[in-house]
Design a protein that fits this description.
The protein has 279 residues and is an alpha/beta fold. It contains 12 helices and 9 strands. Helices cover 39% and strands 16% of the residues. Strand 1, helix 3 and strand 2 form a beta-alpha-beta unit. The longest helix is centred in the first third of the chain and has 21 residues.
Length: 279
C-alpha cells in the first residue's frame, strides 16, 4: 500500500512539474486585442511567393501579392553585422543568393549587391516590408543570433515594429528570444515555434527533445504555439488544453486543409490560394 502511494505521489509530482513547464502565459489586454485579429487568419508563409521562386520568398513582391489577395503574412527577420534588421530566412546566403556567407557577418551595404534567386529582388529591410504591408497582420519570426547580440537584435526589431502602429506578433524557435519579449515587452503577443524533436536539426537530441515537448515554456510563457503540421506530442496537446492559441505551419495544397481548419486557430500556408478567412 505504501509503495502504491509513493508511486502515485511521484506521478502526480511529475504531472504538476510538466504542467508548470509547458503552461502558456497570461495575455495583457493589448495582446488579447492583437490575438483576436489573428484568430481564423490565413497567413502566407514568407509572403505569397511562387514554388519556382519567380516571385521570391521574403521579397517585397511576395508581400505585396499577399496583401492584394487579402492574407496575413509570415516573415523571417535577422540582424546584419552593422545591426540592420533584414527580412530573410536562412542564416547563410548560399541557397537564396549563391553566396557562402552568413547574414550576421555581412553589412547591409554588401547585401544590397545580391539578388533573391537570380531575380531582380533584393533582400529587404524590415522597415521597407512594413511600408508595403500597411495594415496587413504580420507574424514575425526572429532567427536567433546567439549571445549578447540576441538582445540587440530583439530591441532593434521591436523599435522598428512599434514605430508605425502595425498589427503584428512575434515568434521564435529560440525560447530565449521569446523570453526577452516576455521580460522587456510583456504587452506584445508572443509565440513559441516548435516541431517534433527529430525535425529540430542541427540541435542535439536532448535539446531537441526539450524544445519539441515545450519544456522551456516556463522561461518564455508564450501566448500561442506555432507547431509544425505533424503528429503532436502529448505535452503539446496538454498545452492546448491549458488554453494556448494553436497555430499550424506550413500547410500545403496536398494536405488535409479542412482538418487543419478544424484543429487550429490560425494557418500558415504556401503554394495555394485559400479563402482569406475560414472563420
Amino acid at each position: 500500500m505504501h509503495l502504491v502511494l509513493i508511486i502515485v505521489g511521484i506521478l502526480l509530482f511529475l504531472l504538476v512539474a510538466i504542467i508548470f513547464c509547458i503552461a502558456p502565459g497570461k495575455m495583457s489586454e493589448e495582446a488579447k486585442k492583437i490575438a483576436m485579429i489573428f484568430y481564423g487568419l490565413y497567413c502566407a508563409h514568407r509572403g505569397l511567393h511562387s514554388e519556382d521562386q519567380s516571385i521570391p520568398e521574403n521579397s517585397l513582391s511576395s508581400f505585396a501579392a499577399a496583401k492584394e489577395a487579402g492574407y496575413g503574412v509570415e516573415l523571417d527577420v535577422q540582424i546584419t553585422k552593422d545591426n540592420q534588421i533584414v527580412v530573410f530566412h536562412d542564416h547563410d546566403l548560399k541557397r537564396v543568393c549563391g553566396v557562402d556567407k552568413l547574414i550576421h557577418d555581412v553589412d547591409y551595404s554588401e547585401l544590397l549587391e545580391y539578388r533573391l534567386f537570380n531575380t531582380g529582388e533584393k533582400i529587404p529591410l524590415l522597415s521597407e516590408v512594413l511600408e508595403v504591408l500597411d495594415d496587413v497582420p504580420i507574424v514575425v519570426e526572429l532567427k536567433p543570433v546567439g549571445g549578447k547580440r540576441n538582445a540587440v537584435f530583439c530591441q532593434n526589431a521591436l523599435d522598428i515594429l512599434r514605430k508605425d502602429g502595425k498589427v503584428w506578433c512575434i515568434q521564435s524557435f529560440d525560447p530565449r528570444i521569446v523570453r526577452w519579449f516576455r521580460k522587456n515587452a510583456p504587452d506584445v503577443f508572443r509565440g513559441q515555434l516548435s516541431s517534433l524533436p527529430r525535425f529540430l536539426e542541427p540541435l542535439s537530441r536532448y535539446t531537441a527533445l526539450v524544445l519539441g515537448n515545450l519544456l522551456t515554456n516556463f522561461l518564455s510563457r508564450p501566448h500561442y504555439l506555432a507547431f509544425s503540421n505533424t503528429y503532436r506530442p502529448l505535452t503539446v496537446k496538454l498545452c492546448r488544453l491549458l488554453g494556448v492559441m494553436n497555430i499550424v505551419w506550413t500547410v500545403r495544397p496536398d494536405q488535409d486543409i479542412e482538418r487543419c481548419e478544424r484543429k487550429h486557430d490560425m494557418i500558415i500556408f504556401e503554394y495555394f490560394l485559400p479563402s482569406p478567412r475560414y472563420k
